[in-house]
């Protein structure tokens, strides 16, 4: 499960059942034009007149991915960074009296500022129009990004600005290209966007084409386009014209002269610098067999969104062929208000067969179909999470066993050891193992592999790799010939990911402040590391680089400070320079809450957990209710010094008279290996025990909390945690909301579920303990307090079937609960109207069940939003 987050690694990101609902912004804000009046109008309509007491009018936790921000998303989805001081040493987080003082100061400054849910989820957003997919051009002269339209933030446009200075400019929009025609997406394209956690329309992806930094490629409404940066301005060119059969996953060759894409299940090649026609490289694609696209498991759970890779010289493709014929078919009823659409989806649930994925090298010489040579991949290689080429033209794969306890890096060449040919093909490229990772819980896939030409070992460029063998993720050098390893980094906290490398320099991101902060470092090949210039404590930084690792595009955020883009020149060693940025609504600075660091301990009595508390700001004396926000699942963290999109929601709830408590339990990301493996063979155990322990400690840490009125809100895995917490005789919660909850893990997909729980049945066909223990359907009789379950009927991640099974079990035992269903909505409940309705519903539920001191205004939904079943 993936979740997109500010730090979500491109593999994921992120992702444990990660919800777009609890999503973090992935990039920084860029200047917008002529929005000041629109902002003022929105504030005037949404906010009541200020008074000495907050006027509560209608006005979740953002998962932070714990791995590579370049690849997942997720998985999705990571964040909170606490950079060090000038010496590079992290400073301790404030706690105790200092933290409480900070919270009190914030209360005085912001309690009188009203905030409505309408404004929290209005367009434009409080944090400004944030960008996504920010990139440096290959030559480092441009910064490109996708930015929401001024007239509709659900529509993305392609923008760029010169790095040498100058105003950003819009390159192209969907309206300009389509001439007002409605954007069309096939079901396959919609599912691909869902895998990437993209809920907006318009131009949803792009890439630089060629090394000169003058041409960009983008897909739109089933066809492909180029936009060229010329002296006369940007010029768009349509490359294909067959919207009924879309071209998917296009990529340019390294020199920009050719274009590859997938169409009707086959790979195609099209010249860009001549007038030649496109040709099919493969011809055997069918309804269940396709080339060059990532299968569901790779895209959803392994952070691989691609199924083919160009060789360095552009003469060959390393391509995967996927056969889904043995994968079970799930019939999903996408229930809309006016229709029901039946969708057949190949969905490998736990214990069922996966798609068969084979690897091939396609020779692009000649005409017609390409000559295809198979790679002799071992039969035990259930998953192929990563692939690519070394600079000498040798293809490599990372493959994993089904239990994901072994990951192997293998290179493939002609000849070699016997016995590995594919289907008896004597021409198959044979594999040679370079290195491997083993873990008795599971191996985390990483994106740090690269060659270091400046350091040669056994006559070959050294390989950079990351490993958790020491107990925390660190970078190592590997001899490609012998497999010998040498440690490169020795950080006290885990490395997050490699940013780039050039010469004797490697740039990487690493956790700080017990995973609540992220800092950027450069290390030479002798292991001497230093923090990059211009960093300060309690921030979160991610970076992307130009082609030669001389310039970084840094995304910086902090709690209450939306992400912003900076350029940093690594050769001069100077501090990063801010790019012109989109200014947040001035209201944000007035309402942004200051977190108090709360030191709580896990249920084991010794492991410190990361937690924030936000005091109520209604100004009333006495005890107050608390809303707890947590995710609880693997691969994600939510408590950190980064921007979170739930910041304004927390501020709104403070004004409604709630305290808000956020928590990362054991098993979550950005900590050492022992901490992150807490979910091994158990869901609903350690994280539930930690949650209960922390909530019981909270009233001892902070005065004014009514321990009888503590609620919980979670989405996706957090939704599972919400429901599981209520189905427990020892629950400390008075009420909970669970969104898109997995309720029976045998229904969830193979790679995610089996990674943590193993197979659902043993050799005798009997259910295994981890699945029985985590099944919520069998616990429904334990519900004693109000519970609301929310789900979208078109969710293809956590299928709607999960909630239907739970509902049926409640009804069979006559156990009352509440439920809200969103017709036609997927995992993230996209759309401003639906999103506002969702949070109004949650707000009204907590107002009823936790008896908030400040009641909703007459404009806020009340009983009309609740389901017939009430407590």
Question: Can you give a write-up of this model?
Answer:
With 871 residues, the chain is an alpha+beta fold. Among the domains are: 130-246, no CATH class; 446-535; 589-851, 3-Layer(aba) Sandwich (Rossmann fold), CATH 3.40.50. 16% of the residues lie in helices and 31% in strands. The protein has 15 helices and 47 strands. Strands 38, 39, 40, 41, 43, 44, 45, 46 and 47 form a nine-stranded mixed β-sheet that branches. Strands 2, 3, 4, 5 and 6 form a five-stranded mixed β-sheet that branches. Strands 15, 16, 17, 20 and 21 form a five-stranded antiparallel β-sheet that branches. The protein is globular and about 75 Å long.
CATH fold node name of the domain at 589-851: Rossmann fold
C-alpha termini separation: 33 Å
As residue ranges, the low-confidence spans are: 2-109, 417-421, 853-871
Number of helices: 15
The first-level CATH class of the domain at 589-851 is given as Alpha Beta
Specify the CATH homologous superfamily of the domain at 589-851.
Alpha/Beta hydrolase fold, catalytic domain
- Average the pLDDT over all residues and give the rounded result: 84
Oligomer state of the chains in this structure: single chain
């Amino acid at each position: 499960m993936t979740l997109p987050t500010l730090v979500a690694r491109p593999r994921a990101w992120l992702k444990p059942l990660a919800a777009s609902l609890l999503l973090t912004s992935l990039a920084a804000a860029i200047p917008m034009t002529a929005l000041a009046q629109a902002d003022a109008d929105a504030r005037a309509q949404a906010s009541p007149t200020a008074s000495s007491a907050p006027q509560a009018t209608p006005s979740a936790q953002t998962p932070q991915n714990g791995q590579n921000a370049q690849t997942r998303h997720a998985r999705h989805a990571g964040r909170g960074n606490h950079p060090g001081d000038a010496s590079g040493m992290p400073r301790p987080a404030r706690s105790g009296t200092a933290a409480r003082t900070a919270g009190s100061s914030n209360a005085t400054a912001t309690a009188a500022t009203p905030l409505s849910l309408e404004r929290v989820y209005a367009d434009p957003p409080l944090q400004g129009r944030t960008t996504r997919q920010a990139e440096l051009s290959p030559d480092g002269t441009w910064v490109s990004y996708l930015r929401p339209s001024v007239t509709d933030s659900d529509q993305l446009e392609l923008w760029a600005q010169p790095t040498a200075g100058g105003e950003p400019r819009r390159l192209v929009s969907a309206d300009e290209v389509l001439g007002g025609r409605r954007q069309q997406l096939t079901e396959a394209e919609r599912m691909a966007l869902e895998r990437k956690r993209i809920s907006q329309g318009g131009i949803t992806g792009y890439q630089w084409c060629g090394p000169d930094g003058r041409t960009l490629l983008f897909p739109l409404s089933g066809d492909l386009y180029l936009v060229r940066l010329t002296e006369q301005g940007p010029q768009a060119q349509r490359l294909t014209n067959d919207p009924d059969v879309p071209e998917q996953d296009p990529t340019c060759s390294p020199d920009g002269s050719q274009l590859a894409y997938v169409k009707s299940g086959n790979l195609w090649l099209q010249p860009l610098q001549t007038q030649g026609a496109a040709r099919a490289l493969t011809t055997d694609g069918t309804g269940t067999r396709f080339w060059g696209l990532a299968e569901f498991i790779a895209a959803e759970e392994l952070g691989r969104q691609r199924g083919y890779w160009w060789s360095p010289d552009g003469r060959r493709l390393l391509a995967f062929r996927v056969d889904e014929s043995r994968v079970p078919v799930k019939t999903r009823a996408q229930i809309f208000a006016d229709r029901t659409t039946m969708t057949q989806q190949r969905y490998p649930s736990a214990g069922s067969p996966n798609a068969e994925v084979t690897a091939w090298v396609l020779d692009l010489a000649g005409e017609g179909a390409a000559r295809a040579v198979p790679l002799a991949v071992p039969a035990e290689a259930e998953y192929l999470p990563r692939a690519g080429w070394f600079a000498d033209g040798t293809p490599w794969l990372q493959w994993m066993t089904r239990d994901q306890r072994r990951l192997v890096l293998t290179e493939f060449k002609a000849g070699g050891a016997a016995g590995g040919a594919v289907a008896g093909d004597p021409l198959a490229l044979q594999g040679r193992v370079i290195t491997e990772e083993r873990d008795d819980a599971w191996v985390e896939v990483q994106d740090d592999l690269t060659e270091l030409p400046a350091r040669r070992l056994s006559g070959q460029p050294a390989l950079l790799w990351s490993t958790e063998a020491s107990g925390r993720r660190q970078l190592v050098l590997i001899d490609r010939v012998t497999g010998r390893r040498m440690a490169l980094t020795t950080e006290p906290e885990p490395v997050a990911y490699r940013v780039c490398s050039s010469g004797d320099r490697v740039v990487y991101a690493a956790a700080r402040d017990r995973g609540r902060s992220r800092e950027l470092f450069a290390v030479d090949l002798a292991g001497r590391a230093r923090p990059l210039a211009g960093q300060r404590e309690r921030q979160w930084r991610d970076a992307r680089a130009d082609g030669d690792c001389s310039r970084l595009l840094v995304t910086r955020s902090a709690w209450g400070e939306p992400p912003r883009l900076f350029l940093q020149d690594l050769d001069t060693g100077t501090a990063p320079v801010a790019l012109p940025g989109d200014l947040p609504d001035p209201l944000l600075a007035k309402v942004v809450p200051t977190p108090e660091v709360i030191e709580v301990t896990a249920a084991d009595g010794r492991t410190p957990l990361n937690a924030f508390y936000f005091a109520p700001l209604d100004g009333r004396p006495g005890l107050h209710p608390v809303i707890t926000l947590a995710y609880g699942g693997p691969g994600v963290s939510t408590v950190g010094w980064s921007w979170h999109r739930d910041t304004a929601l927390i501020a709104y709830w403070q004004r409604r008279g709630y305290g808000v408590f956020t928590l990362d339990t054991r098993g979550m990301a950005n900590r050492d290996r022992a901490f992150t493996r807490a979910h091994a063979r158990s869901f609903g155990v350690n994280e539930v025990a930690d949650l209960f322990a922390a909530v019981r400690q909270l009233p001892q840490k902070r005065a004014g909390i009514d321990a009888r009125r503590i609620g919980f809100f979670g989405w996706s895995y957090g939704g599972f945690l919400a429901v599981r917490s209520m189905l427990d005789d020892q629950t400390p919660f008075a009420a909970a909301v669970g969104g898109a909850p997995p309720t029976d893990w045998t229904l969830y997909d193979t790679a995610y579920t089996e990674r943590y729980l193993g197979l659902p049945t043993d050799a005798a066909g009997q259910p295994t303990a981890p699945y029985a223990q985590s099944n919520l359907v069998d616990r429904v009789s334990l519900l004693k307090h109000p519970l609301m379950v929310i789900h979208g009927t078109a969710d293809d991640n956590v299928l709607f079937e999960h909630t239907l099974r739970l509902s049926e079990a409640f009804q069979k035992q006559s156990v009352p609960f509440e439920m809200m269903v969103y017709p036609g909505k997927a995992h993230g409940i996209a759309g401003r109207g639906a999103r506002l309705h969702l949070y109004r519903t949650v707000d009204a539920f907590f107002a009823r069940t936790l008896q908030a001191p400040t009641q909703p205004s007459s404009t806020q939904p009340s009983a009309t939003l609740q389901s017939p079943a009430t407590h």
